[in-house]
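B., you asked whether I could sanity-check this one before it goes into the benchmark set. Here's the sequence:
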Amino acid sequence: MEYLGNKEILNNYKIGFPCSRKVPADIILKTYYWAIKLRNDGKCVISGFHSKIEKDVFDILLKGSQPIIIVLARGSKKRWSKEITEQIKNNRLLIISPFNEKVKRNNSVQAKKRNELIVSLSDKVFIPFVKNDGSIYELVRSIKPEKLINNFD
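And here's what the prediction gave me:
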């Protein structure tokens, strides 16, 4: 396991956020409002922040001051954007990769492992949308019901 940033963030109460890539418009809007609420409440979110909706949620969260954890489905990059580097320097961001730096590209097997790691590190998991035939559907079936957040509150 590789870590970049503030490992103390792992001590926070963490809400996992894996999400299907294709999400209906009404769910997207609700998810944005959910992210704003978490940001305003200072809640730590852990996600791959890889899909479009996950990236949008990340951008919303960055406007706050709460800690954030990114879990990669590949090895860590050598260079990060100025924005990411700044958040790491401010001890607000932790990047975790279960893969070494030789793993340069994402694939479905690695994404599954990333999502399982997100769930295992989370205190609660919020999945706003699940396609019945998608990989997130399999993930949801493996999560204990008491760990799932079942609404946008």
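One thing to flag: The chain has one domain: 2-149. Otherwise nothing jumped out at me.
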